[in-house]
Amino acid sequence: MEFQTKAKPIMSDEEIIELYWQRDEQAIRETDIKYKKFLLSMANNIVHNACDSEECLNDTYLGAWNSIPPAKPILLQSFLSAIMRRTAINRFHANKRQKRIASEFTVSLSELEDIIADDGDMTAETEAAELAKSISAYVRALPDRQMYIFVSRFYIADPVSRISEELGCSVSTVKREITAIKIGLKKHLESEGYVL
Amino acid sequence: MTKKNVSDAITELDSDILDRYFLMKQSLAERRKPKNRAWILWTSLAACFLLIVGTVIVAPMWREDSPSVEPYIPTGEAWSPVISSNIKDVVMSADEISRAFDVRLDTTNQYTKMYAPSPEYFEIIPLPNAEYLPFYSIKGGAPSRRELNEFVRKYLDSATDLFGISTKEYEMREDGKTNGDVYYRAEVSEGKKGIRFSSINNYFRINGFDLSERRLEIKGEKVSILESDTDAQIREKLQDTVAYVCAIFDKNYSAVKISRAYSYKQLETITVYLYSPEETIFPSNFSQAPMASDFISLTFYTDWGKGTFCDWGGSGEEAFLSDISVYQTWKDWDDYYDVHAKASMLTLKEAEELLKKGYVFGGHSCPLCMAAQPEVDFSQYTCVDVEYVFDATGKIYIPFYAFYKYIGEDENGIGTYAKTYVPAVQVSGYEEYFESQKVNHRATYGVEDRLDDAS
Lengths: 196, 455
Prior knowledge:
The structure holds 2 protein chains of 2 kinds.
Chain A: H1 13-21, H2 26-47, H3 50-67, H4 76-96, H5 104-111, H6 125-141, H7 144-155, H8 160-167, H9 171-191
Chain B: H1 3-11, H2 15-31, H3 38-58, E1 92-93, H4 94-97, E2 112-116, E3 132-138, H5 145-163, E4 171-178, E5 181-190, E6 193-200, E7 203-210, E8 217-218, E9 221-222, E10 224-226, H6 231-237, H7 239-248, E11 255-262, E12 267-275, E13 295-301, E14 318-329, H8 333-336, E15 337-344, H9 348-357, H10 367-370, E16 383-390, E17 396-409, E18 415-423, E19 427-428, H11 430-445, H12 447-454
Parallel strand pairs in B: 1-19
Antiparallel strand pairs in B: 2-18, 3-15, 3-17, 4-5, 5-6, 6-7, 7-14, 8-9, 10-14, 11-12, 12-13, 13-14, 16-17, 17-18
Helix pairs in contact in B: 3-11
């Protein structure tokens, strides 16, 4: 049976994380009040289906419940987004096996085609972890604005319009920045010995 | 290297980068000022035209397979709502009705996906036999601290006995405020076991839990049933448990109803409701409508919490009792819910006409978003129900025809159904609403990006 959600004052991250540590199920409800909209939007950018997004949201809450403790995140939104990204991408790949998905994530993935040849899967886990480290190093060295655009576009899969609105600049400016970021990433990966 | 390799690597971005990103996001949000978005609206109008053309051409080429299935006709008697003569007659606008499904910022779809082995699992009942349908509203109110305290004292011994907790000490605290009403909750805990006494809508609720395993014990033993058990087998297996739980709370419930919830993967929960049929407002369909009577629910999870991320549940054959909730009305239905208005009920034929025109909620309205979902042809739908849905304020129940269409079987044999809603009462301003929705949605959802990407 579905019951209405009650509107309540929004808790701070610290208070919510404390509830997780106390194993208080109210933690999930408070997380829902504070971050549902952001997480649903993120899921939707990737899976582009309201029903799947809801399921990803539930899985994210369960992931948070199972991870805190022992985890004690500094920024809950950042922690939740990492879980949501994995969850939604798993769902995206599951759905993709059955049909094409016209999501923002599909578009952001296709943007990566410019810098990679797509010629063979890296199977070794160590190689994948090394690649993750290399990309992290590249993003970490970016100026704030470019780092923001990279994470928004390729991690959160936000539409370019939303990024431009958040940064207070034009869509074409963001697109130019994306091109520059991709060229920089390509050079960085090549310098690390990756064949693109 | 593949796109997937790069995407996976991005998924594993170091957390310090994400923290830096979200701190910047917060700071940007604080600095941001409202902007003139008129140009977006004009661009959107042009985009709207292009998309409608695109959708009309492309959509027929990309339709969800609609395998044929026999229509499902529910058994039972049609229900008739009780509406007193002084209730005013209203005609709500499509815009007002749409608030039951808040689609202003999120992507919209033609339908919601539902999962069940067969339509009977949706617990559909015959359509109402009525000239008018009521809008129910919530008067509000919450039990006072004293009232909840009295409830706790009344059931504390029973609850601690049932859940095997020796302490009788409980802590009462504020549980939040809604519309000026303060909600309280009281908790008893011992180790990882606990009991929560709280209130929700017109009910007091007692909820026992065990956070260590999430499997509750009754008289020192875990209780389980099999996913493959029939209703009759479940009733037989749970005879002792049901009798024991009813006796502990001094309830004489004569009816047992079994409800199953499915995900796209599997059966997730089996809930066993214990209640008195003569006291319910909607006797055979209380999964979709509030009940007026007290009841107890025993929920069995197939394998709750075993996996993480996408592996919610498992596919264990055994389902364990993980939640017992005792609901007791603290206010009668009539004191908590009100029939504040009525509207002329649409005939099924009229609703089918709206369905045909695409005036559906819950909800499609933007052709761009619809294009992300394979279109379903609802002309030969599988079954139809009248369902009450809360509006966005959570205060008014609005009646809708809910149309279900079977769209295929999942790889593990679970049926997949598309479900969409059409108002069950007379509503004005459909055309204006759906036109304005296209523009609004396009402005908020960044359609110009997609057009750029497409070109």
